[in-house]
Amino acid sequence: MRSLYAAGLGLAFALSAPAPANAGVVLLASGQLGGSVDASGLSYSLENGLPQNFLGGVGSGLAYAGNNTFLGLPDRGPNATAFNGMIDDTVSYIARVQTLRLALNPAASGSTLPFNLNTSLNATTLLYNSNPLIYGSGSGLGVPAGSWVNTPGKYYFTGRSDNFGAGLSTEDSFARIDPEAIRVSADGKSVFVSDEYGPYIRQFDRATGELIRTYTLPDNLAISNLSPNASVERTGNTSGRYTNSGMEGLAITPDGKTLVAMVQGALLQDRADPATSKMLRIVTVDVATGEVKQYAYMLTTGTGVSEIVAINDHEFFVLERDGTGLGAGSDAIIKHIFKIDIAGATPLTSETGATAAALAVTKSSTPFIDIVAALTAAGVPASAIPSKIEGLAFGEDVSYLGDTYHTLYVSDDNDFLPATSGDNHFYVFGFTDADVPNYVAQSIAAAVPEPSTWMMMIAGFGFIGGAMRRSKMKVSVRYA
User: Fold this and answer.
1) Is the pLDDT of residue 480 over 70?
2) How confident is the model over 120-147, as pLDDT tens digits?
3) How far apart are CA 323 and CA 327, in angstroms?
4) Which of these, 261, 259, 305, lies nearest to 279 by C-alpha position?
5) Among candidates 91, 160, 96, which has minimal Cα distance to 126?
């Protein structure tokens, strides 16, 4: 066996790609994105001493934007570096979207996998509101006011856990954000981002990063007693999202008309009842009208859900996982992708307990892809499989062995800890119409500018953003 692991790239694969869970599904490629800084140009220090342009966590959310372009979404920043427990070690890391190039190219004959995945960072776009936001004063917490990164006309969303005010956690003027998933709009000009703090679903201009809209979500998802400390929040509320288990996954239907979001864990009121302790909420949002519906989803194997991606307008892949693997100092165990169908499901209104659980959406009895089984069969040690696999995105079709394969990109959140979690990882699986008969690629109709990197000097530091045109690409490879 030819070993990439021995070559120092951290991975080893058998010469033939295995078929994970479904006979037609193959592991096509893998890659990593290294580097220590992003393209924001912001090199000043955060409250914990780390640089504002620290590159990490880019696979917390992943979206395809055409022409080998993907949008990576870091979460609330490098809070895995301990410095202040009163604010959960969070810092004023500005929320951002990383424009990535993830290009599949046919591998040379005899290679361990049929494709190479070439990765690069093209641009960084910071997320802000042109209207003032509410920030924490830092009083009694040993940190400066949370608004210290702002500039005139740009009020940045950051990961600081104390950046909130009075009211429900879904109040849309709070500056704190913990981004977890991203999708591109039908016209390619904006992105939708889901968040754990509110929970929120927000829409931003893709080129500038300016907030366009915050969707109003039901009050039963919100908590009323907010705190910068997660343990205090969890004990101080009996209803709403469980702290750090808010809106984790986000999908957009191929026509771009409906957002489909999922909380990571059961709501407080649901987890208190044994019948619904493993019941998660799916929220659908009409992009145009903002109309919201809720559905029930039952966990099968994982401790929570990390992502959802649309197969068509009613079927979805859902990623369940546990916390084991690289970064956690253990062997990876559960990273499962299930297929669900919400067609015909009854929306939740006021149902509770067993009545609510009985309305759960249809779900495959076994995983569509067991990621750990697939990667270990390919020679990757279970200890080298990332613990926080969190991103799913469909990519361009490829031709392999004379058949057309649709691609599913899987990414991880390395928690800004490359020393223990490695660089950001990407795995590409291929499947055919026989595996998923009703797969529909997202249609993004209008072109947006090719990625350009520009510097706008703002109060002594730079800002860089970018966007890409949506296009469909086919890459071919034939193996004897």
Assistant:
1) no
2) 999 999 999 999 999 999 999 999 999 9
3) 9
4) 305
5) 96
User: In the 3-class helix/strand/coil scheme, how is 422-469 assigned residue by residue?
Assistant: CCEEEEEEEECCCCCCCCCCCCCCCCCCCCCCCCCCECCECCCCCCCC
Strand partners of residue 282: 262, 295
Q: How far apart are CA 250 and CA 196, in angstroms?
A: 12
Are 377 and 18 within 8 A, CB to CB? yes
Please determine, for residue 172, whether its predicted confidence score (pLDDT) is greater than 90: yes
Q: What is the mean pLDDT of residues 58-68?
A: 96
The CA distance from 62 to 226, in Å, is 29
pLDDT digits (tens, 9 = 90+) for 357-393: 999 999 999 999 999 999 999 999 999 999 999 999 9
Backbone angles phi, psi at 432, to 5 degrees: -110, 175
In the sheet with 247-252, reading across from the earlier edge strand, the strands are 247-252, 258-263, 279-286, 292-298
pTM tops 0.70, yes or no: yes
Amino acid letter, residue 345: A
Distance CA 78, CA 99 (A): 19
Question: What's the mean pLDDT when you consider all of the chain?
Answer: 90
Token duo for residue 445:
């109709």
Q: Is beta strand 398-400 parallel, antiparallel or unpaired with respect to 475-477?
A: parallel
Half-sphere exposure of 374 (CA within 13 A, CB side): 27
What is the spatial distance between Cα 199 and Cα 247, in angstroms, rounded to a whole number?
5
Mean pLDDT of all residues in 416-427: 97
Question: Which positions ≥6 away from 60 have C-beta within 8 Å?
Answer: 72, 73, 74, 75, 179, 180, 181, 388, 390, 391, 411, 413
Closest CA to 200 of 225, 226, 174: 174
Best CA proximity match to 228, nearest among 167, 168, 159, 171: 159
Helix, strand, or coil (residue 421): helix
Q: What is the pLDDT of residue 451?
A: 41
On the question of pLDDT at 450 being above 60, the answer is no
pLDDT attached to residue 22: 62
The three-class DSSP label of residue 286 is: strand
Token pair 């920043």 is found at 77
Helix (H) or strand (E) holding 176: none
Closest CA to 409 of 334, 303, 337, 313: 337
Least confident of 45-49, 106-110, 414-418, 472-476: 472-476
d(CA 283, CA 292): 7
Q: What is the rounded distance in angstroms from the CA atom of residue 461 to the CA atom of residue 459?
A: 6
The angle at the Cα of 194, spanning 200 to 183, to the nearest 5 degrees, equals: 140
